[in-house]
Amino acid sequence: MKLLHLLGLAGSLAVANGDRISYDGYKVVRVGAQRDLSVSKIQEQIQATITHVDEWERSDTEITVNLSPSQLAALESLGLSYETMHEDLGRSIAYESRNTPQRRGENEKRQAVDDPSWFESYHAWEDHKTWFEDLHAAYPNNSELVSTGTSYQGRDQFGIHFWGSAGPGVQPAVLWHGTVHAREWISAMVVEYLTLQLLSGYGSNQEVTGFVNSYDFYVFPFVNPDGFVHTQTTDRLWRKNRQPAPCSTNSTCIGRDVNRNWPWMWDANPNGASTDPCSQTYKGAAPADSPEMKGMHSFVDTLRDTQGIKLFIDWHSYSQYLLAPVGYNCTHYVPTLGQHIVMGREVARSIYRVDGVQFVFGPSCAVLYPSTGYSVDYAYEVGGAQWAYLIELRDQGQYGFVLPPELILISAQEQWAGMRTMLRLVDQPFWED
Ligand SMILES: [Zn+2]
């Protein structure tokens, strides 16, 4: 058992030392529900035929999977019809990173933190970290760098905390975090854009000044830094953290799904996560048995016990949803679900007005699928957040996780419109009616 465990670790290190997984020739395809075949039946058939299939998305109407040429042949042998999303995933990945600049931190003359070209390409994790340091340096009087701890591989789970006229730690908290799932690159870019708008607008824009005076903001762009680095060095489609499976499972597979690892309703629904360490949704051997989660939920607990949490958002991609509690039970509706739905509608309208993109809103389990050990449920039911959402950013399945860099800015701008609406509405007295 011990030996297997070590071999697993050695295997992962060998990969980390250079071999980048090639997706050349892979296709990402959508299989729609057919007359006598539901999506869950199709999913069962695919999983029975293709071991550890890389599922990208699933709804009531279709399932999206990433397949090697031989896996695609296996899918075709099932007689299932499909639509192609990426004709050659390797080519799409190369396109996505074609403009990625040199390491920002190493340039003698760094770009200013508010240089809009930051949002024209994706960036290395170290450059994001430098960007946050520069952000704090640009607004030193009302911000500080913060951290929820260190990841399995020892990376800082950095973030920024900023405040208005009341000073730090006084007003109710707004907590945003991104990149729980490593491959969802757009999420860090969007939270950075939102953070920049708030800090740069403070003192000059009246509405923004009001937001920053009313709430204490905590923003963490990378809850899963190890996974994110792994997507850039080795496997663009990695989702989980980089922690080996527990020895007790006898598995050599790597990683826990950090958004199935929150210590709340972790075991509430057998369809809400996987117990297989090789699965993309592996929940871990126990609640919060990942360092990334320990740091994150402790941070939520501290905010609950001090300032209280006004608003919590966990930023993901893709499929354009505004998901309210709860994930663990599709017929359990929280007391403020009505308010969460009305808020979701208003935010979705504001997003739509920017570029005509539609977001679906509603309770997470009922509109998507069951998820246990899940962020919004913890934030709402344990963290006492008045408002809690998980937002799935663009797109709806044209590019999926491999969103071209020219769509970063507009994705961020439409969320800024949505967040301005949300921050205007969170304290409106009409919610009491
Ligand atoms: Zn995600």
TrEMBL record:
UniProt main location, coarse: secreted
GO cellular component: extracellular region
GO BP: proteolysis
Localisation: Secreted
Cofactor(s) it depends on: Zn(2+)
Protein task: Extracellular metalloprotease that contributes to pathogenicity.
Record PANTHER family: PROTEASE FAMILY M14 CARBOXYPEPTIDASE A,B, SLL0236 PROTEIN
Name of this protein: Zinc carboxypeptidase
